[in-house]
User: Which sequence fits this backbone?
């Protein structure tokens, strides 16, 4: 009975195809297609891997892949003493496939490193704080003004040694009494990482 390797080789030669052409089509190195045509299974990782090559090879040649696999299984059962390698080695991949694989791997690793560095910078940086309101620093008759600020949700806000609590959006409010002349405001914010930010602003009442 004809072997699967002989069947594939004869069909390929009848169609005038070279091993290199077929290898490029199914992304397998030429020497492994040659091993299939020679029914040499010793260099492959598993029966499943060989079956995948034979299936794709048969389809490229326009053969019934089920028939080709039946020939292979019959031959395989006669050679149960074949010792397959435990792992699929990178050498089974065609150069183009290997480049693509390592390109994707490099991209994913770079993405992870960039994200890690970004998160590390966020953690190591002092908290951001800004005064949203009031916009003006000069007042005429107001005895009190409402200070509205924003910072990180996890930060601790202190104004004149008084703990001020922010909402879920990081907004906080403080009623500041005014006297005639200059009224200094100091907001101290300590982040979850222990880093501290202080901002100062003067308000004036005529």
Assistant:
């Amino acid at each position: 009975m004809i072997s699967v390797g002989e069947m594939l080789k004869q069909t390929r030669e009848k169609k005038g195809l070279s091993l290199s052409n077929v290898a490029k089509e199914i992304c397998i190195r030429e020497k492994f297609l040659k091993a299939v045509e020679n029914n040499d299974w010793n260099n492959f990782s598993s029966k499943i891997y060989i079956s995948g090559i034979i299936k794709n090879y048969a389809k490229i040649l326009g053969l019934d892949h089920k028939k080709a696999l039946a020939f292979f299984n019959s031959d395989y059962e006669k050679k149960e003493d074949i010792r397959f390698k435990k792992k699929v080695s990178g050498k089974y991949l065609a150069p183009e496939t290997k480049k693509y694989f390592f390109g994707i791997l490099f991209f994913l690793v770079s993405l992870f490193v960039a994200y890690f560095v970004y998160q590390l910078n966020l953690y190591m940086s002092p908290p951001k704080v800004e005064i949203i309101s009031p916009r003006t620093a000069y007042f005429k008759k107001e005895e009190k003004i409402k200070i509205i600020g924003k910072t990180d949700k996890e930060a601790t806000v202190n104004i004149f040694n008084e703990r001020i609590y922010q909402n879920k959006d990081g907004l906080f409010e403080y009623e500041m009494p005014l006297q005639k002349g200059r009224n200094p405001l100091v907001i101290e914010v300590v982040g979850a990482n222990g880093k501290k930010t202080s901002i100062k602003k003067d308000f004036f009442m005529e």
